[in-house]
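Internal ticket - ligand job 489, NAI:
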Amino acid sequence: MSSSVQFIDGCWSAGNGKTFKSIDPARNQPVWSGAAADDNQVDAAVMAARKAFPEWSQRSLEERLAICKRFSELLAENKEELAQTMAEETGKPVWETRTEVGAMVGKVAISERAYNERTGTVENDMPGAKAFIRHKPHGVVAVYGPYNFPGHLPNGHIVPALIAGNTVVFKPSELTPKVAELTVKLWEKAGIPAGVLNLVQGEVETGKALSAHPQIDGLYFTGSSNTGHLLHKQFGGRPDKILALEMGGNNPLVVTNVSDIDATVHNIVQSAYITSGQRCTCARRLFIEDTEQGRAVLDRLVEVTKNIEVGDYEAEPQPFMGAMISAQAAAGMADAQSELLRLGGKSLVKLVHEDPKTGLVTPGIVDVTDVEDIPDEEYFGPLLKVYRFTSLDEAIAEANNTRYGLSAGILCDDEETYRYFFKHIRAGIVNWNKPITGASSAAPFGGIGASGNHRASAYYAADYCSYPVASVEADSMSLPESLAPGLKF
Ligand SMILES: NC(=O)C1=CN([C@@H]2O[C@H](COP(=O)(O)OP(=O)(O)OC[C@H]3O[C@@H](n4cnc5c(N)ncnc54)[C@H](O)[C@@H]3O)[C@@H](O)[C@H]2O)C=CC1
Ligand SMILES: O=C(O)CCC(=O)N[C@@H](CCC(=O)O)C(=O)O
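stdout (structure tokens):
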């Protein structure tokens, strides 16, 4: 049991709310337990951030950056411990959690570039004056993180928010509290001043108390579309608060006219099954041309998928897929498969959840070509739906037939086909002959439709971390040579 789990105004304390815990989903063992922050503690965290804001926002950019850079160095120094904790809490293999810590390390330098490029100062001469564009931080912002990237994704909001001069209250996923605790301890070691970054741990009740707090100026959320929609409703009628939503997807990947079948299958596997299908960018719907070549791709995909190694995060050699986040999530995937089969889908590779006490599942493929009314849901796990098609227009129309719009891709030899696809597909990430997962921090990251609210993250996170201020400035005043009609001096 961890006794100091809340970090409020520079002090660690126990929570006063309900006890909750995290479980290692690969081994079904407890990892962490602690008590949630109650409403009073959430209030104390927000008020600490409010109190710290004037001083933090008035510091020079260099001073704020120095702390962020120290944090980045500490992440690199503590890479193994953090990667190990991520693996224990999420079930992701350590080869993968090491890349997550690597992305966190890189975030500070990228966010500094983004801050200067997207929200820096611009000066223009005008007659008798100068015009300036500058940016100011919003104030106190709440950051909500998902479980699938418990370090990298909240970090993608926290780092740019702090660089811009905001103060932060961080509410991590209740499934990954130990990763959050370790990360915030590194911020403390880096010298973050009291109140500038606060951590409130807990389940949904803690999240609700934070999002409803009248003293937050903004909320940056990465998580499910359901929760994001609830928050959007809650923020309705509050144009004074900034809300950035990064949500899920039902992402399409189209295959047509490819000469290298193994390279094609590799891109499909990386798109559909990395992180056991628990990336918001994962391919959920695979569109394959109903030709001899298309069938050859599908046959090879079935063969390769059956041989994907699934296993413990520390197994040697390392598996491609670790456990899903929980036994419950894995059971949910098996249920989703049963539902697709009940609707008329044909199983090409059966997703198997053999041990109901763990989150370990094998990847599955269901051919849903002949099924009508497939639910437009994000199945957040290693379950791929296949649609066979006869014309590219038909495939694109069906690919766009979703309320989401996060990522999309096409695998094809011909550039003209890609250009046509790019023109007609609706998504915030559109790739050609590359996996649709693994987005770069140096590019904007966000979706349309039910996937986001037009506030892209990653490189563009700088945009929602401050507001622009336009100024016209002159160091002295004089009467203009010609006065407006009707004025007498
Ligand atoms: N577009 C993107 O950038 C990404 C989106 N995701 C999406 O995240 C989801 C998986 O993450 P989860 O942790 O399951 O998301 P979630 O929506 O269940 O939880 C996210 C956070 O919101 C809090 N929360 C839940 N209900 C709340 C409420 N009513 N009021 C206030 N706070 C509440 C949770 O405690 C947690 O801290 C997937 O749907 C995935 O697609 C994940 C990564 C990236
Ligand atoms: O925010 C960034 O720096 C880049 C976004 C990113 O890393 N995306 C990853 C994971 C997002 C997810 O699916 O949870 C990706 O595109 O695979």
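Auto-summary: The chain has two domains: 4-248+451-472, 252-432. The two ends are 77 Å apart (CA to CA).
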